[in-house]
Specification:
This protein is an alpha+beta fold. The protein folds into six domains: about 70 residues, no CATH class; about 110 residues, Alpha-Beta Plaits, CATH 3.30.70; about 100 residues; about 120 residues, no CATH class; about 80 residues, no CATH class; about 110 residues. It has 15 helices and 43 strands.
Length: about 800
């Protein structure tokens, strides 16, 4: 019997029709039918996948919009930032207001004919936005100096100094222990180690080597104006080194000194020191006969002078008068450069001078209270003029440094041009996103062409530019009035630049030079109050003006903090004569609760503990240390509804404590509500600060009330400049919680998440359908294979039978 060619492959499987899926399942197609069922199934599933592809296309489009909205966030955020310094935002130092920017010019003058040093050689001056536009003057009499001391010369820096083991000394109260092996280098390091940590000495040690055998330990105070104190505590190590001798500093290279200056002609009003205007010399003569009366309130002394008498002679006659000596009054002629001043001062009671003999010496000499001597520990002075910092470089008596603080128009211009740049970037983006082709169809890159959010933002911004702004100027109402105009799109080859801004630099400069305040009003939020006790702290993008303004009503003012007078000790008994000195025990009422006390056993500390132990609602007591180191009892409330009240003292403790109010809070307030200021939800209260709520159009307006009693009918009015209006639009759109741009991004992200979930579910269903189809076709192929096998067997049997019959 012939062997069939399929004996080793009884099903006649064509290996080209065998496929294996990702799960390792083997599928055979077209074995018996001759049909490639795998391809057929793929074609069927491809048709079923079309909805999935459509969803993927939507996700891709959404993702492009999300990217575009994030780009909108970026350019819109930069636009908002550029407006933040133009919109009239309030800060304690005006740092957020470009129109408060200041610049400083300095110059020098002398009256004695000498050539003054350049101002920059005498003082460095900087000004912040908090500085007032004004003129100051200073005369630096002395710069502050740090004390510097040295040891005796030491022959070697590496040889032991011969100190006794364990000896101790102090620098500014900090103890340093020496070793017998200490060299000059080791001692330097030991001293510098003590100048660290929580309680540093404030003194730095160094070594100056004049020659190999002359080495000096130099001790320098870290701060100017403060002396260095040295003391031997065990042995005499400082004397051995030659830093001290017999308890006093031996080699003081630089004496600690405070800075001294005069400023703005401020006078010493103690009436203890008087000075004349500058005179050419001490030989300058008086021009009349007369008599000056000196009066200190208890003693009167008349002193005659004559025409032609020199001011030095007049000073001598004051010093020779025994009656004036008894009043502590003396005179001197003080040299200032090439000129002099007559000074009259006293060590006793304040006094006055007047002409009683018909002369005019006081007027002729320009006698008045002396300039007030101002001292500072440091050469960096930032607390003399508000917003102005001085760096004292060199003293020059007789030279006045004039400081002119003026508006920094250059900074204002920079802020305005930055706004134009940011707007142009935003407008270019909007134009790019809304471009259409010749048929009116959005370009492929214009993915936000149909965005209502983008259109709304654009329309709101355009609407602001179409309105005049209320200023005090008849000529500055719009951006065009200060040289900012819009580019005509019809003149451009690049449509994305349509309606961007251009700046006429000359016109902007002229506007700022002529009236920078009206330029500010063009951009800024402008607030007014009918009551000077009300000042604005802040506003929000929700704060909306109204025609007649808003009416503020403030309720009662409550005391929320009281402090006692200062005492030397908080642990001394209340009847201690050197402290509180109360003499009668008793009780008083604190915010409705009785507090009992015994002056013979209680102290300030125990009284505070006793009050806290009573657990009075919202009330606490503590003993604080004031700036002078004195102890004060402080009573505080956390709520204006629970004020600190004191009454009904049956002893005399409250009298001796001398409690005064140091903190107040508004109990309630409203906008457009009842005149008594009762709370209707339109204002929230935080101390003396008030914030309008969503119940009123003034929502977000924050103000401070500086009054001490209730008030009603206060008119609050404000206008929005271009900057504040545009800032409001961009700030609302950029709100990260419910801003329109974020809402769009959130919606698209949610849509994409849901779509991806749907694709996952649809793909699982399609995979199941594919598997089912393949299984069915596999079953059919198997059945056909079996039928073919039977047919083949029958055919072979039939052929065999025929062959036998033929034989």
């Amino acid at each position: 019997m012939a062997v069939s060619s399929t004996s080793s492959n009884p099903l006649g499987i064509n290996l080209n029709n065998v496929t294996t899926d990702a799960n390792g399942h083997v599928t055979v197609g077209g074995i018996s039918s001759g049909i490639d069922w795998t391809t057929v199934v793929d074609d069927i599933m491809k048709a079923k996948t079309i909805p999935v592809d459509q969803i993927k296309t939507t996700i891709d489009a959404n993702t492009k919009q999300i990217t575009a909205y994030n780009s909108l966030n970026t350019v819109l955020g930069a636009f908002r930032d550029s407006l933040n310094v133009l919109r009239g935002a309030v800060s304690f130092d005006n740092s957020t207001d470009a129109f408060s920017a200041k610049q400083v010019f300095t110059s020098v003058t002398r009256t004695d004919g000498q050539t003054p040093s350049a101002a920059t050689n005498l003082v460095g001056v900087t000004a912040t936005n908090a500085a007032a536009t004004t003129t100051h003057s200073i005369e630096v009499l002395r710069t502050a100096k740090a004390e510097k001391d040295s040891s005796d010369a030491v022959t070697s820096t590496t040889t032991a100094l011969g100190l006794n083991e364990g000896d101790k000394f102090t620098i500014n109260g900090q103890t340093i222990t020496v070793s017998a092996n200490d060299t000059l280098l080791a001692l330097r390091d030991r001293i510098n180690s003590a100048n660290s940590g929580a309680n540093p000495t404030g003194v730095t040690a160094s070594i100056v080597s004049v020659s190999p055998t002359q080495n000096f330990l130099v001790l320098t105070a870290d701060k100017t104006g403060a002396p260095i104190t040295f003391a031997n505590t065990t042995g005499t190590p400082l004397d051995t080194l030659g830093v001290t001798s017999g308890g006093t500093t031996k080699h003081q290279l630089v004496t600690a000194a405070t800075a001294q200056l005069y400023a703005d002609g401020i006078l010493d009003q103690t009436n203890k020191t008087y000075e004349s205007a500058r005179q050419s010399s001490g030989s300058t003569t008086l021009g009349s006969n007369g008599t000056i009366r000196f009066n200190n309130g208890t003693t009167t002394v008349d002193l005659a002078y004559t025409a032609g008498q020199s001011i030095q002679s007049f000073a001598d006659s004051i010093n020779a008068n025994t009656s004036l000596q008894g009043m502590g009054i003396s005179a001197s002629v003080v040299t200032e450069g090439n000129q002099v001043r007559l000074k009259i001062q006293t060590t006793g009671a304040a006094f006055t001078t007047s002409e009683v003999g018909g002369g005019s010496a006081l007027t002729d000499l320009g006698m008045k209270n002396s300039r007030l001597l101002i001292t500072r520990d440091s050469n960096t002075v930032s607390d003399l003029f508000s917003g102005v910092s001085l760096n004292l470089i060199q003293a020059e008596i007789g030279t006045t440094v004039d400081i002119d603080v003026t508006p920094d128009l250059s900074s204002m211009k920079t802020a305005i041009t930055s706004f134009v740049t940011a707007y142009n970037a935003l407008k270019t983006f909007i134009n790019q996103q809304t471009q259409l082709d010749a048929t009116g169809k959005p370009l492929d890159a214009s993915v936000l062409a149909k965005s209502q959010t983008l259109r709304s933002i654009s329309d709101q911004i355009n609407g602001i530019f179409g309105n005049d702004v209320s200023t005090s100027s008849a000529t500055i109402k719009t951006l065009a009035d200060i040289g900012i105009t819009f580019v005509d799109g019809n003149t451009l080859s690049d449509p994305t630049q349509a309606n961007t801004m251009t700046v006429d630099q000359t016109k902007l400069n002229n506007a700022l030079n002529a009236n920078s305040d009206d330029v500010r009003k063009l951009f800024a939020f402008n607030f007014t109050s009918s009551d000077p006790r009300v000042t604005m702290l802040a506003y929000s993008s929700q704060t909306t003006p109204t025609g007649g303004g808003y009416t503020l009503n403030v309720g009662p003012i409550a005391d929320i903090q009281k402090q006692s007078a200062g005492f030397t000790s908080s642990s001394a008994l209340l009847n201690d004569g050197a402290n509180v000195a109360a003499t009668i025990s008793g009780q008083f009422t604190l915010s409705g609760t009785t507090v009992s006390y015994d002056v013979t056993t209680d102290t300030l500390d125990s009284l505070a503990s006793k009050i806290n132990g009573l657990a009075i609602a919202n009330i606490s007591a503590q003993v604080i240390t004031n700036a002078s180191g004195q102890k004060q009892l402080q009573l505080s409330s956390t709520s204006a509804q629970s004020p600190v009240t004191l009454s009904g003292d049956t002893g005399n403790l409250l009298t001796h404590l001398a409690m005064t109010t140091t903190g107040q809070a508004i109990t309630s307030a409203n906008i457009n509500g009842a005149a008594d200021g009762s709370d209707d939800g339109s204002m929230t209260v935080n101390g003396m600060a008030l914030t309008a709520t969503t119940k009123t159009g003034a929502n977000g307006l924050q103000i401070h009330y500086n009054g001490t009693s209730a008030a009603s009918g206060i008119n609050l009015d404000f206008t929005l400049g271009l900057g504040s209006s545009l800032w409001g639009i961009s700030d609302r759109a950029l709100d990260t919680v419910d801003g329109s741009v974020q809402n769009e991004i959130n919606a698209l992200n949610t849509n994409n998440t849901n779509s991806n979930n749907r694709i996952t579910q649809m793909q699982a269903n399609l995979d199941a359908q594919r598997a089912a189809l393949l299984a069915r076709f596999q079953a059919m192929e198997t059945a056909m294979s079996q039928m073919n096998s039977i047919m083949s067997t029958l055919t072979q049997a039939f052929n065999s039978l025929n062959n036998n019959n033929n034989n």
